[in-house]
Amino acid sequence: MVSLPGTQLFEATFLLRRWSYSIESAFLPSTSCKSILPASHAAFEDLISDPPFHVAATGRILREKVDRIAILDNYEGLQTEEKQRALKILGFVAHAYIWGDGNTEILQQLPPQLAIPLHSLAEELGIAPLATYATTVLWNCSLIQPERGWCPENVEVDLTFTGTSDEELFYAVSACVEAAGAEAVNSLILIASSISHAHEAGVQPDEKLIVGLFDCTITALAQMVRLLKQVLKMKSELFYWKMRPYFAGWGLVKGEETGLRAGVHYAGIDPPGETRKYVGISAAQSSLFQTIDVLLGVQHDEHQHSMLRNVRSHMPRDHRHMVEELEASYSSTIKLYVEGTPALLPAYNGVLDQIVRFRRVHLSAATKYAVREADRRGKTSFGLAKGTQAGGGAIGAGGSDLKPFLQGLVNCTRATRISTSTLIERSVGE
């Protein structure tokens, strides 16, 4: 890391911790994800054991277990980590309860045993009341040997829908990308704050410092690209037809047979006939890249902007507030300064080039594991696994066509690069 003035580093670190952000591992918590809930909430633990959750989820066993438990709605004695664990368990269970296994009927109502605690815990933690990126990745992965750091083989995954090593790898790689991204976020926040502090003091920002921080960002992003490529070890058929169905949100639950509107009814919470259409589990709910985009001034088209704003409600409250506060304070700080400082152009564009690389790898993986798999014949479509033969196709958790959406992210990131011709046109205009 580049050497920083002590006061500036302290201020930045204090602000980041206020948002439940770690300068070592970004949005990942520092505690283990496997601490067992106390006896008062053992009923939740029973839902994922005897038989294991992934076994119970593949039929009617899980639904029968849910229907037998009492309604628990008192969390005063639980620590934050225990509340996160309870919400994680309930989120996994809710998705399996609604979607079944492709052979059982898809349900349109969560019973009070799930709906009431899901709603209460989600309200308290400031996040949507179903499975999210936070519950499947951030609160679902922890280090086996902390001294070895975040690499996929050193990550323990708590819960999966399928009980497969492929699903564990998917979550583990996602967690490691998050951790690697800490250096990028740290560096970009320090660049933005150093520019802002200098302007307030009426002095020139330290360009050497900024270049060094851009270099740190490029190194971190390159590591994120290398980590993301490890998901290509998964089996595409298993991912799309076994794992991905459960990533679907409630907006994909249709109401033709029940008489309800599309979506899911939270019994004991919602008025009769009311349903909810939350989006499903999606990497778009990661605060990491929304933070990076905000700090670099990446502008998305209207559809992407709307979708990315919508999924912020699926981020934990502190993380969402961090994105929003950085957006309010620094959304144009770095880009505007670089536009007036040609010497920083190569470093700034180098950062964007690495993000383009990352998003192109993501697009390539989505093409292999979703777009092409959707053409496979003889498979049962349910949840987020839609076959083209059944009139479906590869869509994202928010319902958008997957490939065009991801290609749009690549295009918008590339379009953010600043060319020398842009600088010339600006100087002439001035």
UniProtKB/TrEMBL annotation:
It catalyses: L-tryptophan + O2 = N-formyl-L-kynurenine. Heme b binds at H362. One of its GO terms (cellular component) is cytoplasm. GO terms for molecular function: heme binding; indoleamine 2,3-dioxygenase activity; metal ion binding. One of its GO terms (biological process) is 'de novo' NAD+ biosynthetic process from L-tryptophan. Produces N-formyl-kynurenine through the oxidation of tryptophan. Belongs to the indoleamine 2,3-dioxygenase family. This is Indoleamine 2,3-dioxygenase.
